[in-house]
Design brief:
The structure holds two protein chains of two kinds.
Chain A lengths: L12 E12 L7 E11 L3 E5 L6 H9 L7 E10 L2 E2 L5 H10 L1 E4 L3 H4 L6 H12 L4 H14 L5 H5 L8 H13 L5 E5 L7 H18 L2 E6 L2 H7 L2 E6 L2 E7 H6 L4 H8 L19 E11 L9 E12 L4 E5 L6 H8 L7 E6 L2 E2 L5 H4 L6 E4 L13 H11 L4 H14 L16 H13 L5 E5 L7 H18 L2 E6 L2 H7 L2 E6 L2 E7 H6 L4 H9 L5 E2 L4 E2 L4
Parallel strand pairs in A: 3-8, 3-9, 6-7, 7-8, 13-18, 13-19, 16-17, 17-18
Antiparallel strand pairs in A: 1-2, 1-4, 4-5, 9-10, 11-12, 11-14, 14-15, 19-20, 21-22
Helix pairs in contact in A: 4-5, 5-7, 7-8, 8-20, 14-15, 14-16, 15-16, 16-17
Chain B lengths: L9 H8 L10 H18 L1 H4 L31 H36 L1 H16 L2 H12 L3 H27 L3 H8 L4 H37 L11 H8 L8 H28 L1 H7 L1
Helix pairs in contact in B: 1-9, 2-4, 2-11, 4-5, 4-7, 4-9, 4-10, 4-11, 5-7, 6-7, 7-9, 8-9, 9-10, 9-11, 10-11, 11-12
The chains are: A alpha/beta, B mainly alpha.
């Protein structure tokens, strides 16, 4: 692992946050969100703020931008100095000028940050319009120049394109171009690559580093991903509950973290070393998928359309007590496969054998008795439980459908809560009273309640913080041990796949490109695409949990 | 688990659906509107207890009298007491308003749920709804009253039919987005029946918008009833409604404008306050508007 071990101590300070405190206002009680934090960023330095959700990373960046939501959050103390000038003293107009020229920001989701009804060229020009006085030709030259700097292909065409015509990576490049066109002193990047695929993420990270080098910009980079931190950070600040736990140069922090919390955070990062494959408990597979194909056809009798092959000839089988992972980037068809198997959408062709029965072609009524054998856990724990139902009612929904009495089902639900590590009295509460990780446990309990043979986990831990992610993965593993379920685990995260899967299927453009044990796929990838995915995984040569380089075998 | 609340009860579903913001400050407008509406409803509902005259009682000697101690608002061209007629007439007007709102919301809700959830049904139902919306609603209502005769129920029916497509569209749009929620997909995976998913998972999402829509329908139904009566296609003329009273006063409008002024005033106040309350309900139930305010 090559860290960015550069020394910035002789460079001038770009941003200095001193004793910054932020609290909620307007409510009945004042809650401290940030308590007296100190951060220093020098010219050309990349400072990473890491921490789990709710640690105050984003509030820090919004405070620097002067964009704290009015009437709910307010700075209660401290100073934010940009090149010696306290930003908190500025009025709204001066701050607006400051935001464009000296500080700029890129966000997580470029699609929502761009205006969908303006061409991207016009949007970049708008930044120049409001802050400089340039002629039309000069303006266009500047815009084309910055677009070339962010390595957009076919600049003239993209200049006149609308955001929806570009890919996610291209949109993020446009955002970066907008942020850097006025050559700001400080760039704040709030999880700028979280919504992107790993290969795109890698390119965007390289781009930010390159532009920073060229313009000497100070970068405040907010992320939850330790892999990204290892790749790009000069200095790391670890945040928790609105406080800075510790800060150190990146290599020092990853090799010898001083604080317990930092050690825990690093230890929770899943390793890329795959688990050894376990034997199946049974000869006959619990789930056997043959030639599964899903074609979306938008052609109709009166309109032109096109066929999209979302999944084509997908074959795999999972034995009882084993886990098969499907990995791939967005649009690879992995979720389509999961939804076909759950019969949430109807497959165009192929067989889906659950036990002995082929459920691929059954109609709604004939499918009903087979439903209990195969259950699903979704990605977003905030939307997978009905917010108007108590936890108890959500848990027993399936049991009632299969003929249990209410009392019996509730008793069973109580046992399930203990099985997933939640108190029994939680049954009477509502989803909003639980954290994301707890809700995901409830969703797992709901699926397990049916005593299924197969559990489909569709990005089931992707929305969770790493420490919670580790707990939920452990829970799935324990449940599998106890109940002997076959798990189909869909994920874009190779680290997670390495932790839990016996076998891995790699999908690209709706087809399986590689299918082998996790050890072989991740250790000795046969296909170019698999290799590219592994190459792009940030921090792949670092063993976070053991604070050292990954032992090569 | 004896104290476990039953989610299947309608009350729980309704209360669960309407989560009022903890600190919502009502302005002066909605409070005045609520008081005005309450007074109008109370006054018309109890009208038979206090009106001084029989609203149907004609008296040729007392035609078109001005306000006096016996006739508080004067009399109409047939010598009937205007005050009694306005108060009693409100009963029918309000009954038609509330009745049309309830019936159209209920029918629209059922059709909208089915249309939003089942694709094949959707294609057929929405074309019928499009066809209904293409006919001017007053024209359609006149035709329906002409078909069924001028009773109160036929007027409610005639006002309800043109309103249904609006409710269907609203419910359908809510269902279309709610059915993509993972919790609905989880319910499908858990083997819940379609009717259970429709009523217990999807229907509660539609309650807030249709309550708001219901108030608008109520106001517009009262108005449509008045228009129908004014055109002579409403409730039969011997039953006083605000619309009927105004229709009959039309010919003597220049001699005696009060004949239209008093029922018109009641009608306007009533509709104004219902609409205002509807707006308030919308602001309270729609979290997006709440944020914009802050």
């Amino acid at each position: 692992m090559i860290f960015r071990n550069r020394d910035f101590s002789d460079r001038p300070t770009a941003l200095q946050i001193k004793g910054l405190s932020v609290a909620t206002v307007g409510g009945r009680t004042e809650t401290q969100i940030l308590s007296s934090i100190d951060v220093t960023i020098r010219d050309g330095e990349t400072v990473c703020l890491v921490g789990e959700s709710g640690s105050g990373k984003s509030v820090t960046s919004l405070a620097v931008m002067g964009l704290l939501p009015k009437g709910s959050l307010e700075v209660t103390g401290g100073r934010i100095e940009l090149e010696g000038q306290n930003l908190l003293d500025l009025d709204a107009g001066a701050m607006r000028e400051m935001r464009a020229r000296r500080i700029s920001m890129i966000f997580q989701e470029p699609m929502t940050a761009l205006n969908p009804v303006m061409t991207v060229g016009a949007q970049i020009e708008e930044v120049l319009d409001s802050h400089t006085r340039l002629g039309a030709a000069e303006k266009k030259k500047r815009v084309i120049d910055i677009m070339e700097q962010v390595h957009l292909p076919d600049v003239e065409r993209i200049y006149g394109s609308y955001p929806h015509q570009l890919s996610g990576g291209q949109r993020q490049r446009i955002m970066i171009a907008m942020a850097l066109i006025l050559e700001p002193k400080l760039l704040i990047a709030d999880e700028p690559t979280t919504a992107l695929d790993v290969t795109t993420q890698n390119q965007v990270l390289k781009l930010i580093a390159e532009l920073q080098e060229r313009h000497g910009t100070a970068v405040l980079f907010i992320t939850h991903d330790m892999g990204v931190v290892a790749e790009i950070a000069d200095t790391v600040y670890v945040m928790r509950h609105g406080e800075i736990v510790e800060h150190a140069p990146v290599e020092t922090l990853l090799r010898s973290p001083r604080k317990v919390y930092t050690r825990e955070l690093l230890a929770a990062v899943p390793s890329l070393i795959p688990r050894a494959a376990r034997a199946s408990r049974d000869d006959a597979p619990a789930l056997d998928v043959k030639g599964l194909t899903k074609i979306y056809d938008t052609r109709g009798a009166f309109k032109k359309g096109r066929q999209t092959r979302a999944a084509e000839n997908v074959d795999f089988a999972i034995g009882r007590g084993r886990t098969l992972g499907i990995v791939g980037e967005s649009g690879s068809g992995k979720s389509t496969v999961a939804r076909c198997i759950m019969r949430l959408i109807d497959p165009t062709d192929g067989e889906i054998r659950v036990g002995q029965a082929d459920i691929a072609k059954l109609n709604r009524a004939a499918l009903q008795p087979h439903r209990k054998h195969i259950q699903i856990v979704f990605q977003d724990p905030f939307r997978s439980l009905n917010p108007r139902w108590t936890i108890g009612d959500s848990l027993i929904e399936g049991l009632l459908n299969f003929g249990q009495s209410r009392d019996e089902a509730l008793k069973h639900a109580g046992e399930l809560m203990e099985l997933v590590g939640l108190p029994r009295d939680a049954l009477r509460r509502y989803p909003h009273q639980f954290s994301g990780g707890q809700r995901q446990r409830i969703a797992i309990a709901r699926a397990i309640a049916m005593r299924p043979d197969i559990l489909v986990a569709d990005e089931a831990v992707s929305a969770l913080d790493v420490s919670v992610q580790a707990q939920v993965l452990k829970l799935l593993d324990d449940l599998q041990e106890k109940l002997g379920i076959a798990i189909l685990f869909i994920t874009h995260d190779l680290r997670v796949a390495a932790q839990i899967c016996d076998e891995v299927v790699v999908m690209q453009h709706g087809r399986i490109v590689e299918h082998d044990t996790a050890e072989n796929v991740l250790g000795r990838p046969a296909h170019d695409y698999t290799r590219a995915l592994i190459e792009a995984a940030p921090g792949r040569s670092w063993d976070f949990a053991n604070f050292r380089e990954l032992a090569t075998n | 688990m004896a104290g476990q609340p039953q989610p299947t009860s309608a009350m729980q579903v309704v209360l669960g659906a309407i989560q009022l913001p903890a600190s919502f400050r009502l302005g002066v407008g909605p409070i005045i509107a609520a008081v005005v509406l309450f007074l109008i409803v109370l006054a018309t509902a109890t009208a038979y207890l206090y009106v001084p005259h029989d609203p149907m009682n004609m008296n040729a000697l007392q035609r078109l009298k001005g306000p006096s101690e016996t006739f508080w608002l004067g009399t109409d061209p047939y010598g009937r007491d205007l005050f009694s007629r306005v108060m009693i007439g409100g009963q029918v007007s309000l009954l038609i308003g509330v009745g049309a709102a309830i019936v159209s919301v209920f029918i629209g809700l059922v059709i909208g749920l089915v249309s939003g959830f089942f694709r094949t049904a959707d294609a057929i139902i929405m074309r019928i709804m499009d066809a209904l919306m293409a006919i001017p609603s007053i024209l359609l209502a006149i035709a329906l009253v002409a078909l069924n005769g001028p009773s109160i129920w036929s007027v409610i029916f005639a006002i309800t039919i043109p309103e249904i497509p609006r409710v269907v569209r609203l419910v359908r749009s809510v269902v279309l987005s709610a059915r993509e929620e993972p919790y609905v997909e989880a319910a499908i995976a858990l083997g819940s029946s379609m009717s259970k998913i429709l009523w217990q998972h999807l229907m509660p999402n539609t309650l807030a918008p249709i309550i708001v829509q219901g108030t608008y329908i109520c106001a517009s139904a009262i108005l449509t009833e008045a228009i129908l009566s004014f055109l002579g296609a409403g409730v039969s003329t011997e039953i006083p409604t605000w619309g009927n009273i105004m229709a009959e006063g039309r010919m003597f409008f220049q001699i005696k404008p009060e004949l239209i002024f008093w029922p018109g005033l009641m009608l306007s106040l009533c509709i104004l306050s219902i609409n205002l309350l509807g707006d308030t309900a919308r602001d309270m139930l729609d979290p997006r508007l709440k944020k914009r305010e802050a």
